[in-house]
Amino acid sequence: MQTAGVRPIIDQRSIAVVGIVEVVAHIPRIWRQFRTLVRAIPAERPDVAVLTDAPDFHLRLAKKLKRAGVPVVYLIAPQAWAWREGRVRTLRATVNRLLCIFPFEEEFFSSRGVPASYIGHPLARIVKPALSRAEFCAQVNVPEDSRIVVLLPGSRHGEVARHIPDLIAAAERIRQAIRGSGDVRFVLALPAGFHAEDTSFWQRVGAASIQRISGQVIEGHTWDALAQAEVALAASGTVTIEAAMLGVPMVTFYRVNALSWILGRWMVRAPFLSMVNLVAGRKIVPELIQRDMTPETIAGEAIRLLQEPAERERMRVDLAEVARKLSSERDPMEIAAEWVERVGNRNHE
């Protein structure tokens, strides 16, 4: 966004915290960032505000924008259909247009009085590898005929720290089980700049074990790693949609603080926690959540996929169905841009 000309007022990464209990320690910093944005409203006098994701933060900001007379376009609908349906009231009162990236969301919000439009999923058009298999394997220093398993522990430091120990232990079990039936190599894929942002991370989670088991750690090449993987072990989130777009069989998992799980689980009404399964309307990929996420369960599901070609093919067919459901005739971001312009223009009529 900065490359496209956006002038940042705060850094989004400073408010990127997942979980109920986890957020408590970060509240002072998040509150300071919130106040900075609120002060910017009268100073900047925006014609329109585009709020993206982060509903706990942005729905509070939407109320301030509404009072200041700034129209709001909300891009990526809060998952009120899964939990905290009370957010619908705030959306109805503050948002001029809600842009949905999952097909079932438009009807849910529209039927509750929120002006909503389905635009398609942006990733459906842009997820593609930049490297050939030969180029990727040369970059991560593995033979081209390797069976690659990509480890995707998350995009936030807290997620990665919670997930890495079990992923490393699962990788060890997979390596032992698959020994003799093909050279399995593990690649740990992290967001661009991950190491630079927190140089103490490797000391906390154990750099030696990661290097020993995963073989290679790469940053900023998630799509390339997925495209060359036979199986992905992926933290539940956007990366599972990316894997679906690339047709990569996967095992999904997620863990939060135990108290966050206890406080939040009773509020969740969705039949699945993986977005891939929600879009499909049935369970097509394994979900190993909280106590179900163990080295044994992760390894067991991965070994099954690695040893049974028919299972991998079945999952690829199901993932192709998900990719089709998330595709649209037009570029979703072009549609979003048109809505932003339309809402902004109405404010001047």
Secondary-structure map with pairings?
Blueprint: H1 27-44, E1 49-52, H2 55-67, E2 72-75, H3 87-94, E3 97-100, H4 105-110, E4 116-118, H5 123-126, H6 133-140, E5 147-152, H7 157-178, E6 184-190, H8 194-197, H9 201-205, H10 207-214, E7 216-219, H11 222-227, E8 231-235, H12 238-245, E9 250-254, H13 258-265, H14 275-280, E10 287-289, H15 295-307, H16 309-325, H17 332-346
Parallel strand pairs: 1-2, 2-3, 3-4, 5-6, 5-8, 6-7, 8-9, 9-10
Helix pairs in contact: 1-2, 2-3, 7-10, 7-15, 12-16, 15-16
Q: Would you summarize the structure shown here?
A:
This protein has about 350 residues and is of the alpha/beta class. The chain has helices at about 25-45, 55-65, 85-95, 105-110, 125, 135-140, 155-180, 195, 200-205, 205-215, 220-225, 240-245, 260-265, 275-280, 295-305, 310-325, 330-345, and strands at about 50, 70-75, 95-100, 115-120, 145-150, 185-190, 215-220, 230-235, 250-255, 285-290.
What features would you describe in this structure?
The chain has 349 residues and is of the alpha/beta class. It folds into two domains: 12-120 and 329-346, no CATH class; 126-325, Glycogen Phosphorylase B (Rossmann fold, 3-Layer(aba) Sandwich), CATH 3.40.50.2000. The protein contains 17 helices and ten strands. It has a six-stranded parallel beta sheet, with helices on both faces. β5 (147-152), α7 and β6 form a beta-alpha-beta unit. The mean pLDDT is 86.
Helix percent reads 40-55%
CATH 4th-level superfamily of the largest domain = Glycogen Phosphorylase B
CATH architecture of the largest domain: 3-Layer(aba) Sandwich
Query: Strand fraction band?
Result: 5-15%
As a whole number of angstroms, the C-alpha radius of gyration is: 21 Å
Number of domains as seen in the coordinates: 2
Mean pLDDT: 86
